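Hi again,

Forgot to attach this to my earlier email, sorry! This is the prediction with zinc ion bound. I've pasted everything inline since the attachment limit keeps bouncing my files.
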Amino acid sequence: MVRLLGLVWLVLMAVGCAEDVTTRIAVGPSASSRYGLVQDAVDAINEEIGEDVFELIAITGDRPSHDWAPVVIVDELADGVGAEVRHSDDGLQICITTRTNVVQLAHEFGHAAGLEHTRSYDNLMFRSATKLGLNQAQRKYLRQMREP
Ligand SMILES: [Zn+2]
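Structure tokens for the complex follow:
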């Protein structure tokens, strides 16, 4: 059964239906006023990884793509949510508000790259993270995500 699921996953990957993951963060018109925040979050997570894994690119629209995840500003997110990744058929979108901070945004970069939540309160992938920390396994995973 596990082998069969693995095969299904491979086939889905081959036709591009599997969930997107990316380390390329895009800023278009929507989030241009928060370019500095996005830059700070990219720098902060790269420093925590110890390598420049995440890349910030400028785009002319705000459309998601399978090659990057645009940061877009939305009016409101659910209570207690600082930022969130939304999945669509066209790719990922990272939604922020005018109040999103660096740690909240870097946490979403982690999700965009495929990281899941941890239970350590001092970890970036803690559900309501307040710190930038990553563990060895997370660093290793992110390093192998680096674009060749
Ligand atoms: Zn999260």
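The pocket of zinc ion is lined by residues 107, 111, 117, 127 (CB under 6 Å). Residues 13-17 have pLDDT under 50 and may be disordered.

That should be everything now.

G.
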